C-alpha cells in the first residue's frame, strides 16, 4: 500500500502533457519564445566574439569553449524550467490560496508532491538546443589542431552527473525562496529572483576573479548560494579551457554543495510547513 | 475506544490589525498591532466509531479550524487530539491513508483535465491496486450517477457534478474517518438531496465515522443523530437533534383548521398569531401552555383539525446561535469586569 513515487511522477508528466496539448497554441508560443530567447543570447555572444577572441587573458575561454559553457547553461535552465519553475510558483500560490491543505493530506512526501505536479514540456526544446550547441562546439574544438582535449565516456558521465548537481542546487534555491511565502503570505518575486540569480551563474567564474567586488560576488555565489560552481564544473569537464587538475577541489566541492543545498532546502521546507496557517475556506 | 478523542484543544492566531487609510498603512510597515484570535478555544470531544456527527455554528465559529486540526493541516496552540490512535499534525502516512477531507469551497481535482485523471493520480498516491481501484471507482461513479462525465474536463462540469467528483476522489481509498466541510454549499435542492442520500447510504454500508459541517438544516436532519454546536471557538451544545429542539425552542406551532370562517372570530386577537388563512389559523404557544390553550379554544370554538409541531429547525438553530452569542458576551463582560 506504499505510494509508488515513480508512478505518481509519471502520472504528473502524462497529465501535464495532456494539459499542454489541449492548449496547443499556448504550447507552441512558449516553445517559440524560449527558443528565440536562446538564439538571441547566442547571437549576442557571437557578436562579442567578433571583438575579442577570449574572455580575459589566459583563461582559456575562447569562442568554442564559451559556447560549450553557454549550451550547458541552457540545458540546466531548461531542466529547471521544465520541472521546477512552474511548481515553485505553484507552491507559492498554494500557500496563498490554502490549497496546500490537500497536499498535506496525502500519504506521500509533501515536498515531492509539490515539486513535480506540473511539468512544463514546452521548455524542453531549449535544452535540446543547448545540447546541440554543446556537441557542435565540442566538435569544432576537437578539430582544432592547436587544442589537445580528450573526451571519453568518463567525461560524458561526469558531465551528466554534474548537470544533475547543478539542477539540484538551483532547485533547492527555488524551493527555499518559495517556502518563504508561508511567512510572507505572498511572494511573487520568484521569477524576478530567478532572473537576478541566473544572471550571475551564466558566466565562467574567471570573469569575477579580477577585482575585490568581483571576488566578493564570486565568493557569494560559490559559498553562500553555490550556483556558480555548479554551472562551471560541468562546462569545464567538456570544454577544458585550461590544463586538467585545476578543477579538482571545485569538482568535489560541487558535490558537497549539491548535497548541502538539498539538505538545507528540505529543512527550510519542513520548518515552513510547521508555520503553515492555511487560508480561510 | 473512541475513534476521535479531543482534549482541551485550542488554536489561536495573531492577526494583523490593519487600520484604514494610506498613512495608517505606511505606519503599519514599521509598527504593527496584532490581535489574538481564538479560533478554537479549549474544545474537548469524543466520537465513537460509526457516528455521523454534525458541527453546527455561525460563520467563523471554528468549525473548519477544528476539521483542519483533526486532519493535521495545521498545528494547535495547545491541547491534544488523537484520531484512529494517531496525532493528526504529525502527518504520518499511516494516518493519512485512513481519512479524507472534503471541502465544499475548495477544489482538489485537476481543473483542466477529466476527473478520471485525478482519480488515477490518487490511486498511485494511496497505492491502491488496479483491481480494487477500478471496482471502487465504478461503484462510486455509479452510485452518484456521474459515470458518463468521467472523461469531461473538470472545468466544464457543473458545481454539483464537480462536488460529486470531489467526493469520489476523497473516497477512493476507503477512508475510515471522513471530514466533510460544507459539502453541499451552493448546490441546488436536487443535487443537495442526492449527495445527502449518497452519504447516508455510504455511511450505513461502510460504517465509517463522519464529521460534517453544514449550514443547511436539511443536511443535518437527514444525516446526523448527534449535533455539536460550536460558537466563538467553544462547544456550546453536544447532543441529539431532539435535545436541541427541546433546549432552544420555548414554544410550539399550532395550526387549527376551523369548521367554518365564523368559528375563527375572536381567535385573530390571540397573541403570537403567525398567519390567518380562513378558515385556517397558525400561532405560537409556549410549550407548557399548549394543553391549556387548546382546551380553552376547543371549549369555545368549532375545530375540525389540529396540528401541533415544533418550530422549523432553522429557527431553533438561529435561537441557539443567538443564545450562544449572548452567553459569550456576558462571559467576556465578567472577565473584563474582574480584571483590574
In a few lines, what is going on in this structure?
The complex is a heterodimer of chains A (281) and B (340). Chain A is built from 12 helices and no strands. By secondary structure, chain A is mainly α.
Helices and strands, with pairings:
The complex is a heterodimer of chains A (281) and B (340).
Chain A: H1 5-22, H2 24-51, H3 63-97, H4 100-105, H5 110-115, H6 124-143, H7 153-179, H8 181-184, H9 190-201, H10 212-224, H11 227-239, H12 248-274
Chain B: E1 4-16, H1 22-30, E2 34-47, E3 52-56, H2 63-70, E4 78-83, H3 93-96, E5 99-103, H4 115-125, H5 130-143, H6 159-171, E6 177-181, H7 189-206, E7 209-213, H8 217-223, E8 226-231, E9 234-240, H9 241-248, E10 251-258, E11 273-277, E12 280-286, H10 290-300, E13 303-309, H11 313-338
Parallel strand pairs in B: 3-7, 3-8, 5-6, 6-7
Antiparallel strand pairs in B: 1-2, 1-4, 8-9, 10-12, 10-13, 11-12
Structural class of chain A: mainly alpha
At CATH's second level, what is the architecture of the largest domain in chain B? 3-Layer(aba) Sandwich
CATH class designation of the largest domain in chain B: Alpha Beta
From the spread of the alpha carbons, the general shape of chain B counts as globular
Query: What is the end-to-end distance of chain B?
Result: 45 Å
- What would you give as the CATH superfamily of the largest domain in chain B? P-loop containing nucleotide triphosphate hydrolases
Rg from alpha-carbon coordinates of chain B: 25 Å
Oligomer: heterodimer
**Main beta-sheet annotation of chain B:** 6 strands, mixed
What is the count of DSSP helices of chain B, taking H or I runs of 4+ residues? 11
Percentage beta strand of chain A: under 5%
Write a structural description.
The complex is a heterodimer of chains A (281) and B (340). Chain A is mostly helical and 281 residues long. Chain A has helices at residues 5-22, 24-51, 63-97, 100-105, 110-115, 124-143, 153-179, 181-184, 190-201, 212-224, 227-239, 248-274. The relative contact order of chain A is 0.13. In chain B, the strands form 3 sheets. A 6-stranded mixed β-sheet of chain B has the order 5-6-7-3-8-9, with helices on both faces. A 4-stranded antiparallel β-sheet of chain B has the order 11-12-10-13, covered by helices on one side. The longest helix of chain B is centred in the C-terminal third of the chain and has 26 residues, at 313-338. Chain B starts with a strand and ends with a helix. The relative contact order of chain B is 0.12. The model of chain B has no long low-confidence stretch (mean pLDDT 88).
Amino acid at each position: 500500500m506504499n505510494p509508488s513515487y515513480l508512478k505518481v511522477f509519471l502520472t504528473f508528466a502524462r497529465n501535464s502533457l495532456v494539459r499542454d496539448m489541449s492548449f496547443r497554441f499556448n504550447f507552441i508560443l512558449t516553445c517559440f519564445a524560449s527558443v528565440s530567447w536562446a538564439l538571441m543570447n547566442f547571437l549576442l555572444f557571437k557578436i562579442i566574439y567578433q571583438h575579442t577572441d577570449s574572455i580575459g587573458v589566459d583563461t582559456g575561454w575562447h569562442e568554442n569553449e564559451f559556447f560549450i559553457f553557454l549550451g550547458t547553461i541552457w540545458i540546466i535552465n531548461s531542466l529547471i524550467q521544465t520541472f521546477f519553475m512552474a511548481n515553485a510558483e505553484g507552491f507559492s500560490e498554494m500557500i496563498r490560496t490554502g490549497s496546500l491543505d490537500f497536499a498535506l493530506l496525502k500519504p506521500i512526501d509533501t515536498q515531492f508532491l509539490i515539486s513535480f505536479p506540473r511539468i512544463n514540456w514546452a521548455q524542453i526544446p531549449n535544452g535540446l538546443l543547448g545540447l546541440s550547441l554543446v556537441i557542435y562546439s565540442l566538435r569544432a574544438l576537437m578539430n582544432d589542431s592547436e587544442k589537445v582535449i580528450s573526451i571519453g565516456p568518463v567525461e560524458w558521465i561526469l558531465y551528466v552527473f554534474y548537470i544533475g548537481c547543478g539542477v539540484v542546487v538551483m532547485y533547492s534555491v527555488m524551493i527555499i525562496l518559495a517556502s518563504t511565502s508561508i511567512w510572507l503570505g505572498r511572494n511573487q518575486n520568484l521569477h524576478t529572483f530567478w532572473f537576478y540569480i541566473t544572471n550571475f551563474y551564466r558566466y565562467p567564474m574567471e570573469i569575477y576573479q579580477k577585482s575585490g567586488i568581483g571576488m566578493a560576488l564570486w565568493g557569494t555565489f560559490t559559498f553562500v548560494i553555490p550556483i556558480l560552481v555548479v554551472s562551471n564544473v560541468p562546462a569545464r569537464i567538456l570544454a577544458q579551457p585550461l590544463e586538467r587538475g585545476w578543477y579538482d577541489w571545485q569538482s568535489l566541492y560541487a558535490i558537497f554543495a549539491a548535497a548541502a543545498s538539498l539538505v538545507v532546502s528540505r529543512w527550510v521546507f519542513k520548518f515552513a510547513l510547521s508555520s503553515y496557517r492555511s487560508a480561510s475556506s | 475506544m473512541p475513534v476521535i478523542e479531543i482534549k482541551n484543544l485550542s488554536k489561536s492566531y495573531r492577526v494583523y490589525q490593519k487600520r484604514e487609510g494610506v498613512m495608517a498603512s505606511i505606519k503599519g510597515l514599521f509598527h504593527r498591532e496584532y490581535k489574538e484570535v481564538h479560533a478554537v478555544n479549549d474544545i474537548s470531544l469524543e466520537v465513537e466509531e460509526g457516528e455521523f456527527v454534525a458541527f453546527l455554528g455561525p460563520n467563523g465559529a471554528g468549525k473548519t479550524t477544528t476539521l483542519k486540526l483533526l486532519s493535521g493541516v495545521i498545528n494547535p496552540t495547545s491541547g491534544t487530539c488523537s484520531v484512529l490512535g494517531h496525532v493528526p499534525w504529525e502527518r504520518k502516512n499511516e494516518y493519512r491513508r485512513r481519512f479524507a477531507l472534503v471541502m465544499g469551497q475548495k477544489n482538489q481535482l485537476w481543473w483542466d483535465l477529466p476527473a478520471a485523471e485525478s482519480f488515477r493520480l490518487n490511486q498511485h498516491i494511496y497505492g491502491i491496486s488496479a483491481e480494487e481501484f477500478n471496482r471502487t471507482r465504478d461503484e462510486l461513479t455509479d452510485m452518484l450517477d456521474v459515470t458518463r462525465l468521467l472523461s469531461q474536463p473538470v472545468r466544464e462540469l457543473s458545481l454539483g457534478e464537480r462536488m460529486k467528483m470531489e467526493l469520489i476522489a476523497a473516497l477512493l481509498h476507503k477512508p475510515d474517518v471522513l471530514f466533510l466541510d460544507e459539502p453541499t454549499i451552493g448546490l441546488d435542492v436536487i443535487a443537495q438531496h442526492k449527495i445527502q442520500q449518497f452519504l447516508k447510504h455510504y455511511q450505513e454500508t461502510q460504517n465509517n465515522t463522519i464529521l460534517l459541517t453544514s449550514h443547511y438544516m436539511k443536511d443535518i436532519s437527514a444525516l446526523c443523530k448527534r449535533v455539536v454546536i460550536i460558537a466563538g471557538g467553544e462547544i456550546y451544545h453536544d447532543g441529539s437533534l431532539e435535545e436541541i429542539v427541546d433546549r432552544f425552542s420555548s414554544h410550539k406551532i399550532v395550526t387549527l383548521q376551523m369548521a367554518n370562517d365564523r368559528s375563527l372570530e375572536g381567535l385573530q386577537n390571540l397573541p403570537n398569531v403567525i398567519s390567518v388563512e380562513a378558515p385556517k389559523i397558525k400561532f405560537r404557544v409556549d410549550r407548557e401552555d399548549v394543553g391549556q390553550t387548546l382546551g380553552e379554544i376547543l371549549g369555545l370554538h368549532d375545530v375540525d383539525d389540529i396540528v401541533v409541531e415544533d418550530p422549523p429547525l432553522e429557527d431553533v438553530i438561529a435561537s441557539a446561535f443567538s443564545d450562544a452569542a449572548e452567553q459569550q458576551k456576558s462571559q467576556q463582560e465578567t472577565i473584563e469586569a474582574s480584571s483590574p
